[in-house]
Design goal:
The complex is a heterodimer of chains A (about 120) and B (about 110).
Chain A lengths: L2 E5 L2 E3 L5 E8 L8 E6 L5 E7 L6 E3 L7 E6 L4 E6 L8 E11 L2 E7 L3 E5 L2
Parallel strand pairs in A: 2-11
Antiparallel strand pairs in A: 1-3, 3-8, 4-5, 4-9, 5-6, 7-8, 9-10, 9-11
Chain B lengths: L8 E4 L5 E6 L8 E6 L6 E4 L13 E6 L2 E6 L8 E9 L4 E4 L3 E5 L1
Parallel strand pairs in B: 1-9
Antiparallel strand pairs in B: 2-6, 3-4, 3-7, 5-6, 7-8, 7-9
Classes of the chains: A mainly beta (about 120), B mainly beta (about 110).
């Protein structure tokens, strides 16, 4: 069974930084792209970033370029997301997800349970 | 960038059919995926590549995609289907993975 477990969320002051982790199990981690998504309180889903299985190709939402960095450690079966200069608008539940499909047909399945990031002074 | 438009809400009585639409420019030429999200839970994929169902998703859940509209259809709606539903696709022109704004399905 595929399992994804996010960690690293919490209360962060504006301007601060954090690193989220997603521990994966139940599949060959290095063979699959992975993604980060987020959901602000009471709002819809937003894609943040994706990374290829080998880690050599990364993708970012236009809103995430510059402050977000996705990475992975295939020896540890772990996905990461670093966020700098946090803003109140970054307050959200952050989910990691395994990419499904190929080419222009990419979906997210399954998703982890998410970790809450609250940016506030 | 590419915009996906969903109705904010759809209401249906138990046993009836719910249709949730996802509008976009020539969306029929793209591959659309659908997610169900219940309160306090992570989203779950219910349809991928327009009309395929992951294992464990009942046959009464189906998808279609043509022209400027993709549709998620839930037949014989049950109280347990009450949730938010999101469409999603990859926009090759902008290299962005895009979500619709979500539709709250209420079972009356």
């Amino acid at each position: 069974e595929v399992q994804l477990l996010e960690s690293g969320g919490g209360l962060i002051q504006p301007g601060g930084s954090l690193r989220l982790s997603c521990a994966a199990s139940g599949f060959t981690f290095s063979s699959h792209g992975m993604s980060w998504l987020r959901q602000a309180p009471g709002k819809g889903l937003e894609w943040v970033s994706s990374i290829s299985g080998g880690g050599g190709t990364v993708y970012y939402a236009n809103s995430a370029r510059g402050r977000f960095t996705i990475s992975r450690d295939n020896s540890r079966n772990t996905l990461y997301l670093e966020v700098n200069n946090l803003r109140a608008a970054d307050t959200a539940v952050y989910f990691c997800a395994k990419d499904g499909g190929w080419g222009s047909k990419i979906w997210f399945d399954p998703w982890g349970q998410g970790t809450l990031v609250t940016v506030s002074s | 960038s590419y915009v996906l438009t969903q109705p904010p809400s759809v209401s249906v009585a138990p046993g009836q059919t719910a249709k949730i639409t996802c509008g976009g420019n020539n969306i029929g030429s793209k591959s659309v995926h659908w997610y169900q999200q219940k309160p306090g839970q992570a989203p779950v994929l219910v349809v991928y590549d327009d009309s395929d169902r992951p294992s464990g998703i009942p046959e009464r859940v189906s998808g279609s995609n043509s022209g400027n509209t993709a549709t998620l259809t839930i037949s014989r709606v049950e109280v347990g289907d009450e949730a938010d539903y999101y469409c999603q696709l990859w926009d090759g022109d902008s290299d962005q993975r895009v979500f619709g704004g979500g539709t709250k399905l209420t079972v009356l």
